Amino acid sequence: MGRRLACQAAVESPSEVDLETSGLRHLPQAARDRALAKNANKFEKVKVAKCGSRMWTEIPELAELIRRGETKWEDLELDDIDIRMKWAGLFHRRKRHPGTFMMRLKVPNGELTSAQLRGLGEVVLPYGADGCGDITTRANIQLRGITMAEADRAIDAVQAIGLTSYQTGMDNVRNITGNPIAGLDPHELVDTRPICQEIQDMIVNGGKGNPELVNLPRKLNICVSSTRDDFPHTHINDVGLEAVVEPGSGEVVYNVVIGGYFSVKRNAVSFPIDTSVTREQVTPFCEAVLKVFRDHGERANRQKTRLIWMVEALGIEKFRDLVGEYMGGVQLARSVPVSHAERWERRDLIGVHPQKQAGLCFVGACVPAGRIPTADFFEMADVAERWGDGTVRLTCEENVIFVNVPEGNVEGLLAEPLLQRYRPDAGLLERGLVSCTGSQFCGLALIETKNRAMRLVEALEAELDIPKTVRIHWTGCPNSCGQAQVADIGLMGAPAKLDGKAVEGVKIFLGGKIGEGAELAQEFEAGIPAQEEYLLPKLREILIEKFGATPKASNGAGPGQLGEGEASWWGNLAGKFVATPKASNGAEPGKPGDREGAWWRTSD
Ligand code: SRM
Ligand code: SF4
Fold it and tell me: With bands split at pLDDT 50, 70 and 90, how would you rate the model's confidence at 555?
């Protein structure tokens, strides 16, 4: 077993640190001191011992050793395989699917070309029934099933199509989100795509990785909003840039809000810091914020290391001054006041909509719980090329938008088999459904989410008339990746008891508002067993009492069941969302597997 496989011992004293390989390398002395302090959290110790960015060169070597049969993934150093690999975007699914990885990408502003869609499909194709993808709540893609033996090839494959998986996990910046209909939107102030791309290129050095920004005290989320809908949710990002018109010059500038985030311990809504930046200042500003965070952020109690904690400790004025200093002595402008006489109804992007370009449409299609079976990557690419301009957009609601579709092509697009599964005319619950990964793959989950979410939506839509879209968000634990607190109805995995025994349960949140006047949902009820026989009547009651739903005129169906002859529109996918042991999936290497053995086959 070579040096690389030996256990990287925790650093006992600062003098033992090898600065070449340590995560301390790009930190100033004060930040090094915090990372080396006795009270530094355990992830700081892992980073001091070896920087996660080292995996960019070590993964190809390790994968090659595995391919040659000289080692096994089980023999690799635990901190490398379970923690540091995340700097390369590879998340070991030790608890649910040991030996396989989820690969998280960066898709700035959620835009993908048909070539990229096919390339992503190619990455997961070899894994047969174990491979699939997900659209995430940051309008991003995660791929599943990747093995250590193929890890380097997967990384190279996504780099070859102009994407990257670097710096997507642990203490790095997450996918930069923008307006999903940027460039097409009659109501946008600016096209957010080049801005998101520029910020990302700064962070990850054009995809090659940027060692200077790999050791933040914690994750950080950035988004750019260009309309009153606030599609990328500035209020729950650590850094939100809101395009506004500066009345004096008529120029678009960006008001800055800071500090939104969710966690087990605290859920914070971002607040304005009385700062605006010009288009030219956007990326230098983000870079300065990241460096101030890196250099001044706490590295002790991990529950208190997100950006807001540092800004609260410094004070807003001191924070602004520091950012200006890091930008080379810039005096940052104050924010631009914004007021609107009339209310703005946040737009629903599902369905067929005219673009600002005459004669062209965008078509939002509902992807059931955000899950993309491997074959659908290829089909999406074909459909986008056949009827649109060959590109698609992803949304934070885990859906897909086909863009630049000539009016004359809309009918053809709507008739595609893919759009019978990814429906542009989805029901008023399905179109508002968001679900995190849940226990199928996520080791932190308290409950299964996606499959359950789909079944409940189907049952509720079958029995209720619902007057308007109700946004139901599922999140498998209090980390709230599924953003339960922004939903009309948020369902969060939580403990519950049934006949004195612990069972999977949920906490229900109600009343989240997004867009203008955003507010977090408040806890409504806790301890509800997640089994459908308990949860379905509870949701039915909430929909009737709080959202004006009415029972459908009899369709012959019992409550919570489909009526006779009423086909389940997602029936083909219905069974594919629940974990089963991975032992045999019937897939031969390199071929899509027989779905019978797939791990998302229904079993509960
Ligand atoms: Fe998340 C950790 C999935 C968006 C807050 N999140 C995780 C991990 C990596 C845990 C793990 O190792 O298993 C999950 C991977 C599961 C898997 O196999 O997919 C995971 N998070 C997700 C995704 C995929 C949920 C989804 O189904 O869409 C989202 C990926 C976004 C992306 O493309 O990067 C995702 N996570 C979020 C969001 C929502 C957002 O960004 O708007 C949040 C809340 C907002 C925030 O971060 O402030 C979120 N995830 C967390 C946290 C709590 C962070 C904290 O400060 O405490 C954790 C746990 C942690 O970091 O310690 C976490
Ligand atoms: Fe996993 Fe919890 Fe995030 Fe869901 S909310 S993906 S269960 S960490």
Answer: low
Under 8 Å CB-to-CB from 291, ≥6 apart: which residues?
Answer: 212, 213, 326
pLDDT in tens, 273-301: 999 999 999 999 999 999 999 999 999 99
Which amino acid type is present at position 4?
R
Q: Tens digit of pLDDT for each residue in 477-517? A: 999 999 999 999 999 999 999 999 999 999 999 999 999 98
* Residue 554: predicted pLDDT: 62
Distance CA(276)–CA(573), nearest Å, equals 46
Closest C-alpha to 109, from 168, 183, 213:
183
* Ligand 1 nearest atom to the CA of residue 137, by list position: 28
Q: Residue 347: which of 181, 176, 107 has the closest Cα?
A: 181
What is the rounded distance in angstroms from the CA atom of residue 92 to the CA atom of residue 103?
9
- Active-site annotation holds for 86: no
Q: Which of 54, 104, 431, 540 is catalytic?
A: 104
- Does the Cβ of 137 fall within 6 Å of ligand 2? no
pLDDT in tens, 526-538: 999 999 999 999 9
**Are 273 and 254 in contact, with CB atoms under 8 Å apart?**
no
- How much is the pLDDT for 477? 98
CA–CA distance, 202 with 214 (Å, rounded to integer): 12
Residue-wise burial string across 118-146, b where 16 or more C-beta atoms lie within 10 A, e elsewhere:
bbbbbbbbbbbbbbbbbbbbbbbbbbbbb
Buried b (16+ CB within 10 A) or exposed e, 593-603: bebebbbbbee
First to last CA, the chain: 43
Pocket test for ligand 1, best of 120, 237, 479 (most atoms within 8 A of CB): 479
Q: Is the four-CA dihedral 439, 444, 447, 453 of positive or negative sign?
A: negative
Does the pLDDT of residue 7 top 50, yes or no? no
User: What ligand 2 atom has the least distance to the C-alpha of 482?
Assistant: 5
Antiparallel, parallel or unpaired: β 501-510 and 90-92: unpaired
User: Active-site residue among 84, 96, 106, 219?
Assistant: 219
Q: CA 390 to CA 231: how far, in whole Å?
A: 23
**Segment 162-179, tens digit of pLDDT:** 999 999 999 999 999 999
**Cα–ligand 1 centroid distance for 535 (angstroms):** 25
Residue 105: what pLDDT?
A: 98
Classify strands 371-373 and 550-551 as parallel, antiparallel or unpaired. Answer: unpaired
How far, in Å, is the centroid of ligand 1 from the Cα of 477? 10
Task: Single out the catalytic residue among 388, 476, 490, 560.
Answer: 476
Distance 439 CA to ligand 2 centre (A): 8
SS3 288: helix
pTM of the model: 0.92
Residues counted in the chain:
604
What is the torsion angle, in degrees rounded to the nearest 10, for the CA atoms of residue 81, residue 84, residue 85 and residue 90? 110
Q: Which ligand gives the minimal distance to the CA of 445?
A: 2
Least confident of 113-117, 246-250, 274-278, 400-404: 246-250
Q: Find all residues with CB under 8 Å of 554, minimum gap 6, and list them.
A: none
